[in-house]
Records
---
Amino acid sequence: MFEKERFIEECRAALNEAHPQAAIRELLTKAVGEPAQIVRALGEPKRAGVETLYRADDLTILNLCWGPGMVIHPHDHRMWAVIGIYGGREVNTFFRRGEHGLTRHGAKELSTRDTIPLGAAIIHAVTNPLDRTTGAIHVYGGDFFATPRSEWDPSTLEEHPYDVAHTLRLFEESNAKLGANARVTG
Ligand SMILES: [Fe+2]
């Protein structure tokens, strides 16, 4: 059964293992294997948002709720990560640095109960292809908010410093759209 505090403790303990990312993927696979338990502990993902479940220098755990159709531009992390989906779907598009900016390098669609490890050099864009909110737990091997990283303009593929405030605004815009739709349909 998923318990937030126990999950954090287990992730912290996993940092001492020989392969922390693999150990944490195992924990996350177990956790998202019972998605209803995560919903019970964290709530139903209804609104887009980033909830920080845990933050330290060597570990960040986020509860990410992607609004319907939400798109996050290509960015890197500069630390390993593990993604696990507990409700909905997340499409990850991967990129590589090329001679002339980024080149697309495959995509992976993750559904409920799926996990994926991401290397520290990975550049990815994330899309929620559904017309409902997707809930995911993202675990990072460092302080996600304090580490400078890059994002790329989706049309020019030009590299810029990552702008956390801009990303957070995307979540608010997604919620504003949801509200507008709710007013139209409801
Ligand atoms: Fe990411």
Note: The radius of gyration is 16 Å.
---
Amino acid sequence: MEISSRHQINQKKQMIIPNTRLEVMKALEPSMDNLMEKYLRSIEENWQPSDLLPDSKDENFFEEVREIQGLAREMNYDLWAVLIGDTITEEALPTYESWLMDVEGIDQYSRNGWSKWVRAWTAEENRHGDLLNKYLYLSGRVDMRQMEISTQYLLADGFDIGTGRDPYRNFVYTSFQELATNISHRRVASGAKKTGNARLAKICGVIAADEARHASAYSHFIKMIFEMDASEIMLAFDDMMKKKIVMPAHLLRESGQPQGELFAHFSDAAQRTNVYTTFDYIEILESLLKEWSIDKVNGLTDNAEKARDYLMALPGRLRRIAERIKIPEKQYSFKWIGV
Ligand SMILES: [Fe+2]
Ligand SMILES: [Fe+2]
């Protein structure tokens, strides 16, 4: 009885709202100007990397660099490696921009609201890699050439995140991923603070704040899609979680290595330092289930109902698996770290 009434609501809904990805994207497109104003900062007022770095025109420049170098040496080895890996991940931004530009409904030729969003988002994100790269260059504790080789490899290798050109799967991915980077930068910030490295704490803190804003934006897109095409977005969410959300740097490698060889070491270092753990992955999933009120969505098809059941039970299942996972204790020697 309940199922048939759900069907009726769904059929009715589909009569009055667009039911394909492209139509939904077109219907949402006029909201992009308002959403950009809400979730992105004006360029004139936004922080820029130079606000957080010593000014090379300044006479105190070398003194400030010496201070940066002294504090960089104090940082825990694994935490430092994670910071470098995070920087490389940010520096692979051209991969993310070109991927998003190719998503169905995001048309860079017609310069619609969606492609405007992708450009403006990219412009904000570009400050992250720029700032971190300059900081690491000044730190005196990075083999820059090795870091640059890894960055070039990561860009050349690209990524495979399992979304295809589907806007729904992509926005599920970006909602998840922006939350993951927020956590990661935030934890490096608190690690830096513990060793008195206030500058690095500030650097990672402002980046984390950007990531949180971006996460809210992508999550808002998904909420709007739930209002128009609930069953399909539920199935897309389900599919992404079944595939598992891979990190954008999953193909990470260092000089001389095959593709993807370094990622597990980077990820183990992040787990050891509590910068990003399996439990964070589960908590992000839980926060998205809550944010999108997955348990309260109605008018779903039978398949989407099944997907919802799977998603609601997933955190519990993942937790039972996560409790059994052992993180390798042995530190890996990254070529990025000279000292
Ligand atoms: Fe970023
Ligand atoms: Fe981001």
Note: DSSP finds 14 helices and no strands in the chain.
